[in-house]
Specification:
Elements lengths: L1 H12 L2 E6 L1 H6 L16 H6 L2 E9 L8 H18 L3 E3 L3 H10 L2 E8 L8 H10 L1 E5 L23 H13 L2 E3 L5 H10 L4 E3 L16 H9 L3 E4 L3 H4 L8 H15 L4 E3 L21 H9 L4 H20 L3
Parallel strand pairs: 1-2, 2-4, 3-4, 4-5, 5-6, 6-7, 7-8, 8-9
Helix pairs in contact: 1-12, 6-7, 11-12
Length: 329
């Protein structure tokens, strides 16, 4: 009972962050609203509060069918997010670390907007700057395929890294204060971003290839390069990235990937990147939705992590990177 109580107390007092979810797609589609507890999906404001989350990254992913009007799709998704802020006093837009800290102090949720793929930019830095003014503070350069910036993991056979636009995009994100995310990038693109960026780089939702060699997972060398940049890796809950028999995935597998990455690069470079509402209909057992994040805190404590290390992994590592990069703006 004492161990359970310690985990609850630690989790409830901690700054908790999640570097990636796809919930905004459902909101944009009108399938549900963030302020209402839903029987479907994995994230809404009531369940974020249950899970103790202060900072949630909401990704704007462009379905391939929308590539021809990706910019419009991105703007409509941002508008849907603003409508949710207007409807819910406990949801805040986060542009800088001060916004995260204010939300934590008030018991609110700080929402961070991310572009998952550069398709909405249409090869234009002017559009990037406009999305920045609308609140975007993180960009995953590609999804799985090729765009104006780079090749995604499903184009790896090309050997392609950053394009000329992709290089200019990295430099402009550095200048503006937008966090760069290499999840989904082909290996050559990961290499190029890490070589070019002068700011910390993250992988918002990727796991360890050394534990399970999936194309979306990162090699030890990639993990070490991200850590060297001052960045962090968001261990993701996607069953297909956790183990080969994904139907048997559980919270234990998530803890195993945290363990592995922490041993390779240190606890200061591990964070959470659930991919809730984008990981399929069957989350890992024990992580059925965001309200179950306490299980990770309990699991880390049971594996011998110090309270300081647990606080870093479940929230403060992301806060550190966000604070450093957005301080430029």
């Amino acid at each position: 009972m004492e161990a359970a109580s310690n985990a609850i107390d630690l989790h409830r007092s901690a700054f908790v962050s999640d570097a990636h979810c796809d919930t905004l797609l459902d909101v944009l589609a009108g399938e549900r609203h963030l302020g209402e507890r839903s029987a479907s999906g994995h994230i809404d404001l009531p369940r974020l509060h249950d899970g103790g989350v202060t900072a949630q990254v909401f990704a704007i992913w462009t379905p391939t069918a929308r590539y021809t009007d990706a910019t419009r799709h991105g703007i409509e998704a941002i508008d849907a997010f603003y409508q949710e802020i207007e409807a819910n006093d406990d949801l805040r837009m986060a542009l800088r670390v001060e916004d995260l800290d204010a939300a934590y102090a008030d018991g609110a949720v700080a929402g961070i907007l991310s572009l998952e793929g550069a398709e909405p930019l249409a090869g234009s830095l002017a559009i990037l700057r406009t999305f920045y003014r609308l609140g975007v503070r993180l960009i995953t350069l590609t999804w799985n395929f090729r765009n104006e910036a780079a090749d995604g993991v499903k184009e790896s056979i090309s050997g392609g890294g950053l394009t000329h636009f992709g290089r200019a995009l990295v430099e402009e994100c550095n200048r503006l204060g937008i966090v760069l995310d290499v999840s989904h990038l082909a290996a050559a693109g990961v290499r190029d971003v890490l070589a070019l960026s002068k700011q910390p780089v993250i992988a918002s939702h990727s796991n360890a290839a050394g534990l399970y060699d999936h194309p979306r997972n990162l090699t030890d060398g990639q993990l070490q390069a991200i850590a060297k940049s001052g960045g962090a890796i968001g261990v993701t809950f996607v069953p297909a990235f956790l183990r080969p028999d994904k139907e048997n995935a559980s919270i234990l597998d998530v803890l195993d990937h945290i363990d592995y990455i922490a041993k390779v690069v240190g606890v200061e470079h591990v964070m959470l990147g659930s991919d809730f509402d984008g990981l399929g209909d069957t989350p890992p057992a024990g992580l059925e939705d965001v309200s179950h994040l306490l299980g990770l805190t309990a699991g880390l404590l049971a594996r011998g992590y110090s309270e300081e290390a647990v606080r870093a992994i479940i929230g403060l590592n992301f806060r550190r990177v966000f604070a450093r990069v957005t301080a430029l703006s």
